[in-house]
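User: Fold this; tokens only.

Assistant: Input:
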Amino acid sequence: MRNCDLNESGFLIVLTILLILTVSLAAFGFFYFSDFLIKSRAGDLVQWCRKWESAELNYYFRLDRLAGDANGNGIIADENEPVSPIKDLIRSEVIAESQKKIDIGDSVFNIKIGHDTVKGKDRNVFIICPSSECEKPLTNEEALIMQTADKLVDGSADALAGNFNGVAGVTLKCDGEAVLDVREGDNSADWNNSIYVGAAYYFDDYRQ
């Protein structure tokens, strides 16, 4: 009887250890997969932004000005510009209309193009928002994607620094496709802050 009890106890211990190992491996696999998924989605977002950046450069090489900069002053969608830079690019066939949006995970990201005044200097910028008018706060997953994209572009995740920044609000024109002004976060470098509605991707030659 005593041997049977010992055998049963040993079996239960082994079974418990195996169960703990299985749960631990499953949890590790889940977190590893989630991390991989976020990195993959952030990579897709950055690649999409760079596709638009290439379109702007191609347009510039063809016409000696940027799309949305009809007066040739180097500033996209300034107050006197009547034309949407996105329509300009699509009309010139340097990018397809289907690229105006991208499905990533459970979200659909929209792009806006224009300029922002940073430290007294105008900078050309892409705005990426999961809401069409850039009015809704990012979800937790969207914030993680933006944070990871920030690391890919700038080397670190700081929503206030570098060329990939957090956006708390935008002023739009040209049917909501052109950017006149960008409102940054209130001194919050944390992408998980609920004030953020999207990201700004600066693509001109000026570096902070």
